[in-house]
């Protein structure tokens, strides 16, 4: 395990593949392997600034990301986790990685992973945040989580990051509707990309008004939309700085740490539920009890909901 992590730290792509394969097996129930993989991480503490890039397909997220990553010096490793719900990366992760980062050649300091998430997959958000943990352990900072495709992937990402960047295209049908949808409230930074296209400034002005009205005195979120034309690398300096400023503001008032804790708590919650489920499924006594209770429900002697509540109380150890 240790050798695998060391090789991955040195840039060995097949060692990184092995780490991700072990994570996947871990998430499918091989908790022993998962535990070994996690305890062999070279740096167990989680430090990286996690940035979520969300927005409709084709808005320019990958293009923006490429330009932001290029602003980091070569000595700083930048992680990118793409959550792909479109099935584009079904031909192998590395081909998928390149497909999604077509905007720029992959810089040597960029660690990219595309997660192939199919509709019905149980925990895309958990998979994404544990993947970010892997890059964190390999020394990447910052780590971007980019959603591709369906809205669910976006919502999953929002809870796993410190800074949410929402990208909007000028073609957005009705900017007022976007404001009404509540999506703007989820975002820390809002970016209007493709400002070279017609009508961009009018959309930007509507978004500016919405952002000005959402922010209170202590709100670290910028009250103006960032205007970028990623195709020509315009406006990216301001966005790069805006993201840094947001991270500093979060760190200054302790929100960074509380968001980090919330991310780990979310992971823990899922794993605890999964472990309880696995334990209960193998518990012969519980199966017999359920069978007995089912008989009562079937015959009308027991109420379904009250019975579930009683069984839950029986299998949960009393509070100390
Ligand atoms: N006109 C214009 N086109 C842009 C700009 N930025 C990106 N594009 C183009 O928009 C298309 C989509 O860009 P991507 O960066 O792949 O967009 P994305 O949001 O990552 O797309 P998905 O990952 O499929 O959701 C590409 O053809 C880009 O060249 C821009 O500022 N102006
Ligand atoms: Mg993309």
Summarize the entry for a quick read.
This protein has 14 helices and seven strands. It is of the alpha/beta class. It has a seven-stranded parallel beta sheet, with helices on both faces.
Walk me through what this model shows.
By secondary structure, the protein is of the alpha/beta class. It has 2 domains: 214 residues, P-loop containing nucleotide triphosphate hydrolases (Rossmann fold, 3-Layer(aba) Sandwich), CATH 3.40.50.300; 48 residues, no CATH class. It is 52% helix and 13% strand. The chain contains 14 helices and 7 strands. The chain has a 7-stranded parallel β-sheet with strand order 3-2-4-1-5-6-7, with helices on both faces. The longest helix is centred in the C-terminal third of the chain and has 27 residues. The radius of gyration is 22 Å and the shape is globular. About 4% of the residues have low confidence. Bound molecules: guanosine-5'-triphosphate and magnesium ion (MG). The site of magnesium ion has 5 residues, from helix 4 and strand 4.
Number of helices: 14
Rg (C-alpha, Å): 22 Å
How many distinct domains? 2
Question: What structural class do helix, strand and pairing data support?
Answer: alpha/beta
Chart the SSEs and their pairings.
Elements: H1 2-9, H2 13-27, H3 31-39, E1 50-54, H4 61-70, E2 77-84, H5 93-100, E3 110-116, H6 124-137, E4 140-148, H7 151-158, E5 163-168, H8 175-180, H9 183-186, E6 189-192, H10 200-214, E7 226-227, H11 236-252, H12 255-281, H13 284-298, H14 304-315
Parallel strand pairs: 1-4, 1-5, 2-3, 2-4, 5-6, 6-7
The structure holds guanosine-5'-triphosphate and magnesium ion.
